[in-house]
Amino acid sequence: MDYQKVCEIITKIPDVMPRRFKDVQFHKSERCPMDFDPCSFGDDKRTLFLRHDIDHDPFAALEMAKVEASFGIKANYYFLTNDTSIFHYENPDRREKALTAIAEVEALGHEVALHYDCIGEYLATGKPLAESIEEPLQMLRDFGLSIEGCVAHGASRVRILAGEETFPLHLCNYQTWNETNPDSKTFHANDRDLTLPGLSLDDFGLKYECYFTRKDRYMSDSGGLLWRFWEGQEQPFEQIREVPGGSFNDWIQSPSGDFEVMQMLVHPVWWVKSLGMDEFYYYGTVKDSSHEYTQRVYRTW
Ligand SMILES: [Zn+2]
To answer: What is the predicted pLDDT for the residue at 222?
Structure first.
């Protein structure tokens, strides 16, 4: 499936509106820590939060952002600056290029924000959680970007260091926050102790964490395997009711209710071929776009 086809389906459905998280007023409710009233937009449409986690290649993000902009779609981009993305931020020249691409994504009308792996960084190096949030935020904001939210990276290094081979996962980056995780718990991994939650979103000027915003239905292209669907407010890392191989067209056309809220995670790195790129970055090295990873999304709908 081409990414252009995904955009075409989204824009052809009259009662679906892609929205940015930064345009939403969140409040805590029994349903979830960051609830909102989907009727408040006054357009009688279902809300689609199109979310992109940028684990490898900020330039692939920019190409995806251009395609969406050509369809009039506004999406939400979350940039990881450590772990699998460190290559782009560890040297001033590369950092400048990456930040320039991110600024272009924002200029196209999309939201740009933070994808974080503070727990992986702490377990691997001992770096305090707050520094792993503050440093990239400052870098992005100093470049003139407006950052209001974040989303956790499902870091494979956290799973490896914590010895977690199966779902549900017990240690995830989104457990960092006081606002969303009331119960304190201490973990021990890689000879380090970690008590969570430890930080407040508010202290960093962050309004939301995508995993805790209202989502009546959730879908993802994780692993390049289309598509995986979840229902309700549970987190994808906590339960295993994922169903690969479903139809995107059927999913988006069949509402679970009026004014429903959908969150859809798409990683640009799986779609580089349909974004017209010959090469892309994967773990900091250049791969040809005929690489096996980039073929998976074309096998299924
Ligand atoms: Zn990620």
So the answer is: 78
- Nearest to 217, CA basis, from 241, 193, 196: 241
Radius of gyration from C-alpha coordinates of the chain: 18
CATH of 3-11+30-36+46-298, one of 3.40.50.1010, 3.40.190.150, 3.40.50.2300, 3.20.20.370: 3.20.20.370
CA torsion through residues 81, 87, 88, 91, sign: positive
Distance between Cα 222 and ligand 1 center (Å): 9
Regions of the chain with pLDDT less than 70: 238-245, 296-301
Question: What is the CA(80)–ligand 1 centre distance, in A?
Answer: 7
CA of 92 to the centre of ligand 1 (A): 23
Reported in sequence order, the residue ranges of 34-134 that DSSP labels E, i.e. its strands, are 46-54, 76-80, 111-116
pTM: 0.95
How far does the centroid of ligand 1 lie from the alpha carbon of residue 45, in Å? Answer: 29
Ligand 1 centroid to Cα of residue 44, in Å, is: 32
